[in-house]
Amino acid sequence: MEMFRFANPAFFYALLIIPVLIVLYFAYRAKRRKAIKEFGNPEILAPLMPNASPARSGWKFIITLIAITLLIVALARPQFGAKLEKIKREGVEIVIALDVSNSMLAEDIQPNRLERAKRAISRLTERLNNDKIGLIVFAGDAYVQIPITTDYSSAKLFLSAINTSVVPKQGTAIGAAIDLAAKSFTPNSESSKAIIIITDGENHEDDPVEMARLASENKIIVHTIGMGLPQGAPIPMNNASGQQEFRRDKDGNVVVTKLDEKTLQEVAAAGGGKYIRANNTEVGINAIFDEINKMQKTELESKVYSEYNDQFFYFVALALLLLAIELFIMERKNKYLKKVKLFKK
Fold first, then answer.
1. Degrees, nearest 5: CA angle 90-186-125
2. Candidates 3.40.50.1970, 3.40.50.410, 3.90.226.10, 3.40.50.11540; CATH matching 87-303
3. pLDDT tens digits, 250-282
4. Arithmetic mean of pLDDT, 45-72
5. For the whole prediction, is pTM greater than 0.85?
6. How far apart are the first and last CA of the chain?
7. What are residue 151's phi and psi, to 5 degrees?
8. How far apart are CA 88 and CA 81, in angstroms?
9. What is the DSSP track for 52-115?
């Protein structure tokens, strides 16, 4: 099945010039007839202008309009695409669940836990080839930020806009994130699947270990990356005056958010995956990716159209031919070609 499209359809707005030219042409013809009438009766003056040919002028104008139309179509770049092809790619499917709760703003990992995690994910997309990737953000709730895709450029674009305000409900619902991630893979796909949980691990919402176990039963491996250091760090925030201070509890004490390694280790163990603690030198996502690369690669089928081929040159050639013809058509009758009745008048 051949596919046809115009690469630059905006140029079709230039076709609006056609009715303008038609109006101007008929205005010119009317003015010309008026000028002839000022000299006398056109029927009496006709014998005095034996070589005049209104029909030739009309044909020249029509040919010019067609040529202009063809050139505008050429500028719109008509293209034909090749047949729909089924491309087989071997890879795995990865869904990353990124914690965006306020505790991820702690600066024990520079510049802060969330920003460092985002940079690591961005670098990971640069290592992907045929694999599919999806992104979930979570705090008190979990949401799909990027559906499973091979469009790594779009993934990086969406990733850059993520901050702690994308999930309104605060908390750290790791179990909800695992559950949503497990549901985000390609339906009915036999591909190898892995979930990477990136969080500080302070879970207070649900049972992430049980959700990891259920994911493992469905042949989904769950890895965890702990963002933060065991000694913890305060959570920076801006007060009403715009000045930075640290978050405090109801008693006025500075809140210190600590990495909950025990929970993350248990989640990784239940999910058949690996736990890695991030630090200021290495987040650990590359080590997780090396583990994922050991997984069996399966065929990920996708349908794509090959590149479209430009066809504008046919329209340009025809337009130039018509302009050449228009150039050789004289508005006055040629005394040597009077007997050739190409035109009625």
1. 60
2. 3.40.50.410
3. 888 998 999 999 999 999 999 999 999 998 888
4. 77
5. no
6. 48
7. -85, 85
8. 20
9. B-HHHHHHHHHHHHHHHHHHHHHHT-EEEEPPPEEEEEEE-EEEEEEE-SGGGG--SSSS-HHH
- 202-239: per-residue pLDDT in tens? 766 789 999 999 999 999 999 999 999 888 999 998 77
User: Which residue shows structure tokens 């409900």?
Assistant: 169
Alpha-carbon distance of 43 to 275, in angstroms, equals 100
Instruction: Specify the pLDDT at position 303.
Output: 52
Please, what is the Cα angle at 99 between 270 and 217, to 5 degrees?
25
State the pairing for strand pair 272-277/220-226: parallel
Q: Strands across the sheet with 78-81, in order?
A: 3-6, 78-81, 308-310
pLDDT at 88 over 80: no
Q: Which of 178, 166, 231, 235 is nearest to 205 (CA)?
A: 178
pLDDT at 304: 53
Cβ atoms of 225 and 197 closer than 8 Å: yes
The rounded distance, in Å, linking the Cα atoms of 175 and 149 is 23
Domain limits of the chain? 3-82+308-328, 87-303
- Nearest-Å Rg of the Cα atoms of the chain is 35
Token readout for 328 is 């050789």
309 half-sphere exposure, CB direction, 13 A CA radius: 8
Give the other-Cβ count within 10 Å of 184's Cβ. Answer: 21
Neighbours of 259 (CB within 10 A): 26
The neighbouring-strand residues paired with 304 are 85
List Cβ neighbours of 13 (8 Å cut-off, separation of 6 or more): none
